[in-house]
Amino acid sequence: MPVTITPTDLTSNNNSVERDTSFSFNISVSATGMDVIESIAVTSSSPDVGVTISVTGTSTATVSGSYTEQFTDEIHYMEPGTTNRTATVFDADGNPTGERDLTDAEFAEQKLIYPSMARPTVVIGTGNVPPGKQIIKLNNDRTGYKDVTYTVAVTTTINTYNETIDHRVTNGGAAAMNWLTSYLPTDLEV
Is cis: bond before 47, omega within 30 of 0? Predict the structure, then answer.
């Protein structure tokens, strides 16, 4: 091929990145022979609000940021100063087995007793949690990794070439906890 694109694969342990962790990599493009590069474009198979793609001239693109939307963590949060209540779930023998959200009728009844009570907002992905909220529940996506594919389209004076680059995003056991620790304020009263 008269166009060379590097790197070609970012899925090895040396090139993978942990979710919610800053990263940056460059994509270099060069042409040989009579081909002259007119433009390059880079698109992601799985766009992420935490990741920026910037193209410089006709030979370099930089992908950088932090993958915050690749995993389906379910985060429940509240506005500061509001409260939430749940109902206890019992098994057939009367033993508690967990919690559930209140039904609409239960919520209306409890709201009369606890006026500051509100329903939590539920979002998917750490990148969708606005700053300054009370996190009340985090259901962590346990998927080990996801590969994000970047398509590099190079237009030359002769042809258009497309190559893909895979970037592995890992989801280590502590990834969601690390995000939560960095999200929470450090000046909590004990």
Answer: no
Q: Which residues of the chain carry a pLDDT beneath 50?
A: none
**From residue 183, how far is each of 68, 138, 141, 154, 179 by CA, in Å?**
13, 12, 18, 39, 6
pTM of full prediction above 0.85: no
Residue 190 covered by a domain: no
In a shared domain, residues 125 and 151: no
Residue 62: CB atoms within 10 Å: 15
Residue 187's pLDDT is 64
The burial of 141, by beta-carbon neighbours within 10 Å (0-12 exposed, 13-18 middle, 19 or more buried), is given as: middle
Comparing C-alpha atoms, which of 35, 36, 29 is closest to residue 4? 29
* C-beta separation of 20 from 178 below 8 A: yes
The span from the CA of 111 to the CA of 84, in Å, is 10
CATH of the domain at 148: 2.60.40.10
Which domain does 100 fall in, by range?
A: 74-139
